[in-house]
Amino acid sequence: MKSILSSLTGFRSASSWFEVYAAFSTFMMLLRTAVNDLVPDQVRSVISTKLEDFFSKRQSNRQASLTINRYWDDRYERNNELYEAAYDYLPSRVKQTYKSLKIGKLDDREDLALAVDGKEEVVDEFEGIKFTWMLDDGSREEQRDSNKREFKLSFDEKHREIVMNKYIPYVMGKYETKKSERRILKLNSWTHGRYWNGSDFSHPATFKSLALDPELKQTIIDDLERFLKRKEMYKKVGKPWKRGYLLYGPPGTGKSSLIAAMANYLKFDVYDLDLNNVSSNSDLMAAMRNTSRRSIIVLEDIDCNREVHARSVTDDDDDDDEDDDDSSSSFSDDFKEERFTLSGLLNCVDGLWSSHGEERITIFTTNHVEKIDPALLRPGRMDMHIHLSYLKANAFRVLASNYLDIQDHHPLLEQIEELLEKSDITPAQVAEQLIRNEDPDVALNQLLKFLNETNMERQAKKQKKKDKN
Question: Acidic residues: which segments have biased composition (predicted)?
């Protein structure tokens, strides 16, 4: 050993380096021989195993993992959105290089669907950090149980904060954006007082296609946009994040089309609730409770239900505060009686039961607004009243463009618009005339004839009524 140290202090050339190497090699051979001769095999094996465990544990302890199950709650099968997000996100990261992908064509999507199948790890990179994903389908005996499906996300322990605060929100954001772009809306109807029966909502109406006064149309769009952006404001003032609209006017003025346009604009599902199919307040509560967030709840032709008709003066409350108190107390009594009442509806629209869901819109439609009890129409219940009236000149231009592709001027437009200003004609009646012929000249002439005849009939009725009086 002294010769090695002396060589280390005195070398100056390549030959000196060779002498050091030779001396060190000789020392190691002597040491290995001594260990083999003096230390028993069992002791050497234990020492080797301990050293391997020590270094492997130091390496593995730096790795952390998160388990992402398909269902958060096995008993109630509550979907874990993070699982869906990972399932949707990972194929987009590896579809060019991954060796084992599932592929298919789903009936509700135009593009091909891709998914990882659990046969190999997926490595993703975010902000220069590598993350490893693995889909575990469970054992063969467990594969029939979809609850056993899970993702495992592995990463270096030192990046835990980045994973929780940046990476997972990034994956969720990608999923939400993609889901919104390809989302197929659902139209749900309350069936037998027990459950919502859903189907694809494919109504093509948009705000662009609506035959509506341009100023009114923009007012509605602005109100919807304002509602979407004001979640924190609603929370700050202590109000549920919801909005109510009343659509009223003669039949055929576009109430259903406006609802469809609102749903398509917001990307909200629609829940169509016929109050005549609601037998009790508890039934109504069950229907409301089982609607999802980001939805529109529609109560069409509400005037057809006698329970919501305007009460007599003796039954009406003197002011809003008394109305609220009356609604709460009578709701409790009516609930026990198991029947549907106005107070039950008021409680679900603006009372305690209205707070079970957020980012929701409630829409009432009626042909006879004068029949509806004022308590149901006040702000907080129906915040915006939209009068959909007969077709006039501004809105007619939209129909002319939609049906006949008339963008600018046509000789008959001014005559038609003058007649519309003096007529009580609905958009549905005009649309029926325009759809009968694709030739603009023929279609507009037929419409002009229809308007003249309608006005003549109207004048004749007026005269007949006048003569009768």
Answer: 315-327
Q: Give tens-digit pLDDT for 281-304.
A: 888 888 888 888 889 999 999 888
Token code pair at residue 377: 């129409």
Residue the block writes with tokens 């388990």: 67
Q: Which residues lie across from 199 on neighbouring strands?
A: 187
Report, in angstroms and rounded to the nearest whole number, the Rg of the chain calculated over CA atoms.
37
The helix/strand/coil state of 134 is: strand
Q: In what order do the strands lie in the sheet with 129-136?
A: 63-69, 150-156, 129-136, 122-126
Query: Residue 359 gets which letter from DSSP?
Result: S
Q: 425 or 25: which carries more pLDDT confidence?
A: 425
Q: Do 159 and 166 touch, CB atoms closer than 8 A? A: no
Average confidence score pLDDT of the chain: 79
CA distances from residue 467 to 343, 457, 460, 461, 462 in whole angstroms, order as listed:
47, 15, 10, 10, 9
pLDDT of residue 468: 77
Residue 170 has pLDDT above 80, yes or no: yes
DSSP conformation letters of 64-117? EEEEEESEEETTTTEE-HHHHHHHHHHHHHHTTT-S-EEEE--TT-SSPEEEE-
CA 266 from centre of chain:
9
- Which two structure tokens, joined as six digits, stand for 353? 């039961």
Among 408, 396, 402, 409, smallest CA distance to 447 is for: 396
Q: Locate tokens 């603009």: which residue? A: 440
Helices and strands: H and E segment counts in the chain? 17, 15
Tell me the one-letter amino acid at 107: D
pLDDT in tens, 30-79: 767 766 666 676 666 666 666 666 555 555 558 888 898 887 766 545 67
Q: What is the pLDDT of residues 445-454, one digit of tens each?
A: 999 999 999 8
**CA distances (Å), origin 217, targets 88, 214, 267, 297, 431:** 36, 5, 18, 20, 19
d(CA 425, CA 341): 36
Which of 50 and 214 is assigned the larger pLDDT?
214
Where b means 16+ CB within 10 Å and e means fewer, 252-288 reads bbbbbbbbbbbbbbbebbbbbbebeebebbbbbbbbb
Q: How far apart are the first and last CA of the chain?
A: 134
pLDDT in tens, 380-423: 889 999 999 999 988 999 999 999 998 878 889 999 999 998 88
